[in-house]
């Protein structure tokens, strides 16, 4: 055990699974500092930071993944998720589309693409993303409800308001 990075990683994972997110963050950070080339540790830390809505920190820390071509998908998805969380939908869309080019069957990306497009008022494109997600996994009740609501919105004639 010359380098305890994996022990830290396991501890972090257990803390995360029990809802002790601050402790999990501390141990993921120890794991990645102990072994800067422990890419799965970086991904786990960044996902945790997104879960905690620490988006600014994610945008700084995610750049480490650029050093590893094998983590390009993770880089794009994690950064897209942070940008979405910050309501920067245009930039989020750019990263999510690039992630989808690498792997077009990840429902996390497809669903986030759908919600990003909804926020950009691109309803038909959002439905395409949700449909692609449902083709991968039909058992997504929230996405099914969202698709139904969007279709109802598109089918409802908009009453023009005079200014």
Tell me the span between the first and last alpha carbons: 71 Å
Number-wise, the strands total 0
Q: What is the strand content?
A: under 5%
Give me the strand/helix succession.
Answer: HHHHHHHHH
Shape: elongated
Q: Summarize model confidence as the mean pLDDT.
A: 94
Q: What is the alpha-carbon Rg in Å?
A: 19 Å
Report what the structure shows:
By secondary structure, the chain is mostly helical. The model has no long low-confidence stretch (mean pLDDT 94). It contains nine helices and no strands.
Concise account of the structure shown:
The chain is mainly alpha-helical and 163 residues long.
Keywords:
single chain, 163 residues, mainly alpha
Write the layout of secondary structure elements.
Layout: H1 5-17, H2 21-34, H3 39-51, H4 55-61, H5 72-85, H6 89-102, H7 107-119, H8 123-136, H9 141-155
């Amino acid at each position: 055990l010359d380098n305890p990075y994996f022990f830290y990683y396991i501890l972090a994972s257990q803390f995360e699974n029990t809802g002790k997110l601050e402790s999990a963050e501390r141990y993921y950070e120890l794991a990645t500092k102990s072994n800067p080339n422990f890419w799965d540790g970086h991904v786990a830390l960044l996902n945790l930071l997104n879960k905690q809505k620490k988006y600014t920190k994610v945008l700084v820390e995610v750049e480490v993944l650029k050093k590893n071509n094998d983590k390009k998908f993770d880089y794009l998805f994690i950064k897209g998720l942070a940008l979405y969380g910050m309501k920067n939908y245009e930039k989020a869309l750019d990263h999510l589309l690039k992630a989808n080019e690498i792997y077009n069957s990840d429902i996390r990306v497809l669903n986030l693409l759908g919600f990003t497009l909804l926020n950009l008022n691109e309803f038909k494109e959002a439905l395409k993303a949700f449909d692609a997600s449902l083709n991968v996994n039909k058992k997504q009740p929230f996405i099914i409800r969202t698709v139904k609501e969007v279709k109802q919105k598109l089918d409802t004639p908009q009453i023009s308001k005079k200014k």
